[in-house]
Design goal:
Blueprint (H helix, E strand, L loop, with lengths): L4 H37 L11 E2 L5 E2 L11 H7 L1 H9 L14 H6 L7 H6 L4 E3 L6 H10 L4 H7 L5 E3 L1 H5 L6 H14 L2 H17 L5
Length: about 210
Protein backbone atom coordinates (compact mmCIF):
# COMPACT_ATOMS: atom_id res chain seq x y z
CA UNK A 1 0.00 0.00 0.00
CA UNK A 2 1.41 3.36 -1.00
CA UNK A 3 1.84 5.85 1.81
CA UNK A 4 -0.22 9.02 1.62
CA UNK A 5 1.51 12.09 3.13
CA UNK A 6 -0.98 12.24 6.02
CA UNK A 7 -0.70 8.51 6.80
CA UNK A 8 3.08 8.65 6.59
CA UNK A 9 3.46 11.70 8.82
CA UNK A 10 1.12 10.40 11.54
CA UNK A 11 2.55 6.88 11.50
CA UNK A 12 6.12 8.15 11.47
CA UNK A 13 5.43 10.42 14.45
CA UNK A 14 3.92 7.52 16.39
CA UNK A 15 6.93 5.34 15.61
CA UNK A 16 9.24 8.18 16.62
CA UNK A 17 7.56 8.63 20.01
CA UNK A 18 7.49 4.92 20.80
CA UNK A 19 11.03 4.39 19.53
CA UNK A 20 12.43 7.35 21.47
CA UNK A 21 10.80 6.19 24.73
CA UNK A 22 12.08 2.64 24.23
CA UNK A 23 15.53 3.96 23.36
CA UNK A 24 15.71 6.14 26.47
CA UNK A 25 14.60 3.28 28.70
CA UNK A 26 16.84 0.60 27.16
CA UNK A 27 19.94 2.77 26.98
CA UNK A 28 19.41 4.67 30.25
CA UNK A 29 22.06 2.64 32.16
CA UNK A 30 24.65 3.27 29.45
CA UNK A 31 23.66 6.93 29.25
CA UNK A 32 24.06 7.30 33.01
CA UNK A 33 27.50 5.66 32.90
CA UNK A 34 28.51 7.92 30.01
CA UNK A 35 27.39 11.04 31.88
CA UNK A 36 29.31 10.01 35.01
CA UNK A 37 32.41 9.21 32.96
CA UNK A 38 32.33 12.63 31.25
CA UNK A 39 32.06 14.42 34.60
CA UNK A 40 34.99 12.41 35.99
CA UNK A 41 37.29 12.77 32.99
CA UNK A 42 36.63 16.39 32.00
CA UNK A 43 35.36 19.43 33.94
CA UNK A 44 32.34 20.99 32.28
CA UNK A 45 28.79 20.13 31.18
CA UNK A 46 27.67 16.61 30.25
CA UNK A 47 26.02 17.76 27.03
CA UNK A 48 28.01 19.28 24.19
CA UNK A 49 27.78 23.05 23.84
CA UNK A 50 27.56 22.96 20.05
CA UNK A 51 25.98 25.55 17.74
CA UNK A 52 22.34 25.11 16.79
CA UNK A 53 21.45 22.83 13.89
CA UNK A 54 18.94 23.26 11.07
CA UNK A 55 15.76 21.21 11.19
CA UNK A 56 12.74 20.93 8.92
CA UNK A 57 12.07 24.11 6.92
CA UNK A 58 15.42 25.51 8.17
CA UNK A 59 14.12 25.90 11.72
CA UNK A 60 17.02 26.03 14.20
CA UNK A 61 17.13 23.78 17.25
CA UNK A 62 19.55 22.63 19.90
CA UNK A 63 20.72 19.06 19.34
CA UNK A 64 21.43 17.06 22.50
CA UNK A 65 24.71 15.13 22.39
CA UNK A 66 27.01 13.84 25.09
CA UNK A 67 30.14 15.95 25.20
CA UNK A 68 33.10 14.15 23.66
CA UNK A 69 35.21 17.30 23.40
CA UNK A 70 36.57 20.01 25.67
CA UNK A 71 34.10 22.71 26.79
CA UNK A 72 33.58 25.50 24.25
CA UNK A 73 35.04 23.27 21.53
CA UNK A 74 33.64 25.32 18.66
CA UNK A 75 34.98 28.58 20.12
CA UNK A 76 38.39 26.89 20.45
CA UNK A 77 38.24 26.02 16.76
CA UNK A 78 37.42 29.59 15.75
CA UNK A 79 40.39 30.82 17.80
CA UNK A 80 42.79 28.60 15.83
CA UNK A 81 42.50 29.65 12.20
CA UNK A 82 44.70 26.88 10.77
CA UNK A 83 42.61 24.22 12.48
CA UNK A 84 39.38 25.87 11.37
CA UNK A 85 40.51 25.97 7.74
CA UNK A 86 41.47 22.29 7.92
CA UNK A 87 38.08 21.58 9.50
CA UNK A 88 36.28 23.20 6.58
CA UNK A 89 38.49 21.56 3.96
CA UNK A 90 37.77 18.10 5.43
CA UNK A 91 33.97 18.40 5.25
CA UNK A 92 33.69 19.82 8.79
CA UNK A 93 35.72 17.22 10.66
CA UNK A 94 39.32 16.79 11.81
CA UNK A 95 41.31 13.58 11.51
CA UNK A 96 43.28 14.15 14.72
CA UNK A 97 41.03 16.55 16.58
CA UNK A 98 42.88 18.09 19.56
CA UNK A 99 39.58 19.02 21.20
CA UNK A 100 38.49 15.44 21.89
CA UNK A 101 38.63 14.31 25.54
CA UNK A 102 39.88 10.92 26.73
CA UNK A 103 37.51 8.24 25.50
CA UNK A 104 35.78 10.71 23.20
CA UNK A 105 36.84 8.94 20.02
CA UNK A 106 35.33 5.70 21.30
CA UNK A 107 32.05 7.43 22.19
CA UNK A 108 31.84 8.88 18.70
CA UNK A 109 32.90 5.66 16.97
CA UNK A 110 30.10 3.62 18.57
CA UNK A 111 27.64 6.57 18.54
CA UNK A 112 27.09 6.63 22.33
CA UNK A 113 27.25 10.43 22.14
CA UNK A 114 24.15 10.38 19.92
CA UNK A 115 21.80 8.72 22.43
CA UNK A 116 20.51 12.00 23.96
CA UNK A 117 19.01 12.81 20.57
CA UNK A 118 16.06 10.64 21.59
CA UNK A 119 15.08 13.76 23.57
CA UNK A 120 15.03 15.77 20.34
CA UNK A 121 12.82 13.09 18.78
CA UNK A 122 10.32 13.31 21.65
CA UNK A 123 10.30 17.10 21.30
CA UNK A 124 9.43 16.74 17.61
CA UNK A 125 12.62 18.43 16.39
CA UNK A 126 14.11 15.24 14.95
CA UNK A 127 12.99 11.83 13.77
CA UNK A 128 14.51 8.39 14.27
CA UNK A 129 15.27 8.36 10.53
CA UNK A 130 16.02 11.35 8.35
CA UNK A 131 18.73 13.49 6.77
CA UNK A 132 21.74 14.66 8.75
CA UNK A 133 21.14 17.72 10.95
CA UNK A 134 23.52 20.27 9.47
CA UNK A 135 25.01 23.42 10.98
CA UNK A 136 23.74 26.61 9.30
CA UNK A 137 27.29 27.77 8.55
CA UNK A 138 28.13 24.33 7.16
CA UNK A 139 25.34 24.46 4.58
CA UNK A 140 26.16 28.09 3.74
CA UNK A 141 29.86 27.45 3.19
CA UNK A 142 29.50 24.12 1.42
CA UNK A 143 26.93 25.46 -1.03
CA UNK A 144 29.35 28.25 -1.95
CA UNK A 145 32.09 25.72 -2.67
CA UNK A 146 29.74 23.17 -4.27
CA UNK A 147 26.90 25.13 -5.94
CA UNK A 148 25.67 21.90 -7.54
CA UNK A 149 24.53 20.82 -4.05
CA UNK A 150 21.94 23.60 -3.70
CA UNK A 151 18.95 21.67 -5.14
CA UNK A 152 19.77 18.74 -2.84
CA UNK A 153 19.98 20.99 0.23
CA UNK A 154 16.63 22.59 -0.60
CA UNK A 155 14.98 19.15 -0.76
CA UNK A 156 16.56 17.64 2.36
CA UNK A 157 15.45 20.61 4.47
CA UNK A 158 11.81 19.75 3.73
CA UNK A 159 11.87 16.90 6.29
CA UNK A 160 13.02 16.45 9.88
CA UNK A 161 16.62 15.41 10.40
CA UNK A 162 17.18 11.98 11.88
CA UNK A 163 19.33 10.18 14.43
CA UNK A 164 20.14 7.78 11.61
CA UNK A 165 19.67 8.01 7.88
CA UNK A 166 20.77 6.82 4.45
CA UNK A 167 24.29 8.25 4.53
CA UNK A 168 24.95 6.95 8.06
CA UNK A 169 24.21 3.37 6.99
CA UNK A 170 25.70 3.77 3.53
CA UNK A 171 29.13 5.18 4.32
CA UNK A 172 28.69 7.75 7.11
CA UNK A 173 31.19 10.64 7.00
CA UNK A 174 33.41 8.87 4.47
CA UNK A 175 31.25 10.31 1.66
CA UNK A 176 31.69 13.82 0.25
CA UNK A 177 29.33 16.66 1.12
CA UNK A 178 27.69 16.63 -2.32
CA UNK A 179 27.15 12.88 -2.21
CA UNK A 180 25.82 13.10 1.34
CA UNK A 181 23.40 15.89 0.42
CA UNK A 182 22.30 13.90 -2.65
CA UNK A 183 21.59 10.83 -0.49
CA UNK A 184 19.65 12.92 2.03
CA UNK A 185 17.64 14.59 -0.74
CA UNK A 186 16.85 11.20 -2.27
CA UNK A 187 15.59 10.06 1.15
CA UNK A 188 13.35 13.13 1.41
CA UNK A 189 11.86 12.28 -2.00
CA UNK A 190 11.54 8.53 -1.41
CA UNK A 191 10.64 8.35 2.29
CA UNK A 192 8.23 5.66 3.40
CA UNK A 193 7.59 3.62 6.53
CA UNK A 194 9.15 0.50 4.98
CA UNK A 195 12.24 2.46 3.92
CA UNK A 196 12.55 3.89 7.44
CA UNK A 197 12.45 0.40 8.95
CA UNK A 198 15.05 -0.76 6.42
CA UNK A 199 17.42 2.02 7.54
CA UNK A 200 16.75 1.33 11.24
CA UNK A 201 17.56 -2.36 10.75
CA UNK A 202 20.84 -1.49 9.00
CA UNK A 203 21.93 1.02 11.66
CA UNK A 204 23.28 -1.41 14.34
CA UNK A 205 25.63 -3.02 11.80
CA UNK A 206 26.85 0.37 10.61
CA UNK A 207 27.52 1.39 14.22
CA UNK A 208 29.34 -1.87 15.01
CA UNK A 209 31.48 -1.46 11.92
CA UNK A 210 31.99 2.19 12.92
CA UNK A 211 32.45 3.18 9.30
CA UNK A 212 33.47 6.80 8.90
CA UNK A 213 32.17 7.80 12.32
CA UNK A 214 32.90 11.42 13.18
Amino acid sequence: MKNTPDFYDKTKRLIDIVGAIVGLVVFSPLMLLTAVYIKLISPGPVFADIPERLGKDSKKFRMYKFRSMIPNAHAYLLQHSELYEEYKRNSYKLENDPRIIGGGNFMRRVSVDEFPQFINVLRGEMSLVGPRAYFPFELRDQQRVFPESRPYVERLLKVKPGITGPWQVGGRSEVSFVERAKMDAAYADRRSILYDFYIILKTPLAVLQARGAA
